[in-house]
Amino acid sequence: MYPHIHIGSLEISTWRLAALGSAVICWVLFLIRSKKLGYPFYTIFPWLLFALPVGTLGAHLFNKLIPALAGSSYSSSYSFSGLTVIGSIISILIYSLLYIKYVMKTTFMPLMDAVAFTFPLSVLLGRIGCLLAGCCYGRTVPESISASLLSAFTLPLDFYMPSSEARQAYHDMPLNTLVWNLPLLFMIEAFVILVITEALYHKREKWNLHPGTVFASAGAMYSGGRFFLEFMRKDEMVGNTIFNAWQLATLVLFLFFSLWLCFSLYSRHQNLLHNKEVFK
Question: Which domain holds residue 209?
Fold first, then answer.
């Protein structure tokens, strides 16, 4: 594990490098797609460029908001760095809606379908940084699992640097203790969503998908899948519930994207009925 890269006296966070690298790769791929779709570079590039500080600001704001809402059920010293993904999603989604409507002055839904693949791709690449930094870590693995094929999704504690959050959380346990490799599970989920999202996008016209269906599907799959994966995280629960703050946040996202998806599917159904009436 390499939480930092040292160049002389300069210390660079691998998590930040992974996050920046994933953003740049997504930018390049989407700029190529947007050019094919006929969107002008001078409006698309500023949208992508300013999304980076907007997402960062939203992430930090969200990290402050959740502990305040959770109250005394979370200790004041607890790290909320993992909530940055959720905070970034919410802030960038709101920013994109305003930018596309008032700056680009174009329709929101088709453009969001085109950019939908960057949603899981950024998670897939960015979680590499979480793995290297040791900021996302799972629960201890039962002995029955440690000897099975599922052990491929685990990590020993000595994988993590002594200063990492993972080692600090398990400081009183043997170094050969196995914990769930949470970033890897997130990466596998993101890869599956990426494949499905791209398949939906390329079939959107053939299947007469209503604009917005692809992005809503990606959001619903991500938030729904992450909700269940969060049960493998070592974390404090909110109040007397069995859920952590991540799960409550992703549950809200899942409901939002599910409603969006239901609306898109209903609109598709109505369009199909209308087309049948026209061609009678």
Answer: 4-139+149-166+174-273
